[in-house]
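PT: before anyone asks, these are the final sequences, not the draft ones from last week. 331 residues across everything. Please model them as a single complex and drop the result in this thread when it's through.
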Amino acid sequence: MEKILAFGEIMLRLSTIDNARLDESTEFASHYGGGEANVAISLANFGHQVGFASKVPDNPLGYAVKKHLNKYGVDTSSLLFGGERLGTYYLEKGAGLRGTNVIYDRAHSSFSEMQELEWDSIELFEGVNIIHISGITPALSTKWQNLMVQLIKKAREYDVKVSLDINYRGKLWSVDECGAFIRKIAHYIDYCSAAKLDALNFFKISEKKDAGLDYYYQAIAESYPNIKVFYSTKRKVFDAQHNQLQGNLYQNGNLYQSKMYDINHIVDRVGGGDAFTAGILHGLIKYDDPQKTIDFAAAASTLKHTVSGDCNLFSEKEVQDFLDTSGEIKR
Ligand SMILES: O=C(O)C(=O)C[C@H](O)[C@H](O)CO
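LR: through. Structure below.
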């Protein structure tokens, strides 16, 4: 069985209730969030062997994170304890035309303050086939940019494939900073989330009139033939509760697309991309069929929009049932 190791920061998420503004909120719903942790949990729910490497404070807040991950079957033997605080983020939930707003409170967190990779590489990569990382971690500090390069190179030494979700976060760093970093590590990546804007902004591909997504993937692959799989979602936002979503997967020179889902009652959109990424990794590991993989990933992401919190809570069978029945009552 393949083992995946997700690596990144996990945070406490405090969300406003009933779409209240943050400054008038007297109570918050609490969840845990973090792009890579969300992927780990979703993969565990699909039945994979998955670990999560991070650092949280050595206090009840950190222990609660461990319990949260363990509840879904995520291995926490690489979860370190120490440092000052658990990163937090606030989510002011949007409604109608008012979009959701994220406010980070993660400076000086145990994870972001790490000065070196505190793991023993042999233990960290023991039995691991794929490491999943995202562009959120290097956005935390220049120190983390250096550490990520070290981590990725180590992963390659141990013959571990590298999955990167670019996950650009404009509140953490600039497009230029992100692009410079992505181009620095791109030669070491096997699977990469990227859409047209990522191709233009981060891989510096020139825009070509009327070119389809496959043109951009092919152009990136010419410079980085090591990237075997590209994937992205195409999203049309009507308002905070109504989006359309379609999945794209580029493999072996071909573009595969899912159907376009009309999600007209969004409960919580955050983590939808992570659910999609987990669906892609699941498909790459389990199905030797790119069309099946993209159909599964888009369905998994669509289902995620129906539950609160960052994590996708559906099993492989539930996603498969949804693909087969599309929302019918099951009796
Ligand atoms: O934005 C971040 O840094 C997070 O990791 C929080 C959320 O979990 C993430 O954005 C969801 O993809």
